[in-house]
Amino acid sequence: MSEHQQAPDLERMRHSASHVMAEAVQEIVPGAKLGIGPAIDTGFYYDFDLPRPLTQEDLKAIEERMAEIIKGRYPFQRTEVTREEALKLFADQPYKQELIRELPEDEVISVYKHHNFMDLCRGPHVEHTGQVPMKGIKLLNIAGAYWRGDEKRPMLQRIYGAAFPNRQELDNYIHFLEEVERRDHRRLGQELDLYSMHELGGPGLVYWHPKGALIRETIENFWRQEHRKRGYDLVYTPHIGKLDLWKTSGHWGFYRESMYAPMVVDDVEYLLKPMNCPFHILMYNTRTHSYREMPMRWGELGTVYRYERSGVLQGMLRVRGFTQDDAHIFCRPDQLENELVSVIELARFMLQTFGYKEYDIELSVRDPLNKAKYVGDDASWEMAETALVNALHATNLAYKRVEGEAKFYGPAIDIKVRDALGRGWQGPTIQVDFNEPERFDVNYVGEDGQPHRVVMVHRTVVGSMERFVAGLIEHYAGAFPVWLAPVQATVIPIADRHNDYAWEVAKRLKAEGFRVEVDDRSERMNAKIRDAQMQKVPYMLVAGDREAGEGTLAVRRRDGQNPGTISVDAFLEMLRGDVASKVIF
RNA sequence: GCCACCCUGGCUCAAUCGGCAGAGCAGACGCUUCGUAAGCGCCAGGUUUCGGGUUCAAGUCCCGAGGGUGGCUCCA
Fold it and tell me: What is the pTM of this model?
């Protein structure tokens, strides 16, 4: 599943498969104009400009035709051609013409031909179409894709195909896709009654149901506790601010497309906040600060609103209103590196607690070709980047430098976490900002009695509550560890005569602060177990004649590792241990 | 926003060619009192997302809007 490790011959086979598919498409939909068709992580795709939309049935026909082409064992033949020859060969292929014209002067231009299909292509390819294993190939879906990824250019139709060396590996991949679907936070969010969204309420706006809210509250409490431990103070700020504030901060100039239109209050324009930083700066500037106070760390679970284009919204992962676990650190330049290091350590601690064992670290810097998208001068950007690099070196972490990923006000360390399925998620982000302190004239008084410019660090460790919880739902497949589970145990009386005992036990557990339910419906025990199991409750506590008689519980754990029949006290001890250790099962 | 597809009780889905909107689950009620993943019966639940149109007749065909899904572009 990783692009870094794609074997050269696997990539070659996938690319050849895309050519085979392109031939099939050209036969089935006459007049197809070819875009590009590369190999990707799990297979390949090819983009076409077609006179009609493709349908699901087309995919079937294309697959069948591919099988025939593969059976033909047609050799792939490479030919080198001059630019003029190439233009002539692809006279009726406008997209290929564009590609040819843009090839550098000294580039060797090659075309690959198999059977009746020829494509402009650098190669390499397999020897003949028979080396493409049809049993390892499945066309998956049809999607729109802009020509060359540019939304101002025509939209082509893209066919994605999975391609693996054999049937077994393809099946594994299909199972992976099914597992992804099984864990989908939108499905589980509904089944487990965690959250909803409403057509009438507006897209991209999340309603946290009691169980989802409980998970969030638990995470937030943990977050507050860990931040206080590390010298953070917590603050609250408003949800709207005057337009002038956002002009001063630079958001109006550089972030406007993500902000909601101003609302007018008493003839003055206000904006819904897309970020918390300017508010924290206003608070900082309410008085002078001494170098002795530095660093000051202000955290806020701040709810922000950002306009996101309708097509990008996705469950709780991509929404229009969300709560960031934001914090801003105001510090002296000499403190910056230490602060960055401790933020990185905090971030790693949090990730580890939630069971994210692997992550990739990226250093996000400006797009050097498009500096107009960012505020501030080169010198500050370089200073900021150097500080981040030094912090990464100090923590001994490997990272990748990614151009064009910086925020508009400064470079960042972005941590991408890997979940239980190996998929990457946006995790913590740490940004150095020399610009807003400049714009808001943010100072401290130095040892020399003179004002000095503050350096600001913006950082989140979980990102946003919405995205983080969505990630956790999928990471845990809905089976939250005991400390987070909205219902930690369900007491299951076998018959109605055990209800009193069940409630008595539940009362004791609740008195200790645990989240316990009693299923006293007039149902069979089997049905109650099934329901609790499907709600992914960690512990089911069966209470029948024997248990009621001796003050015990028959404990069933949702993962099948059953502790057996134990006393209520012993179970209490077990729960306390699970919560304290935050154990994941 | 763009391309394609989708929208039928709370949920998951049926409804032949345009011809009386139906089932399972969930819910209410009743029976059952049961030992580790669904006990039985009965009842209720619908302006087929919304607004127009075509037709003797629209869940079904056409137009528009809203919402969603998969991508593209963009992001916590």
Answer: 0.95
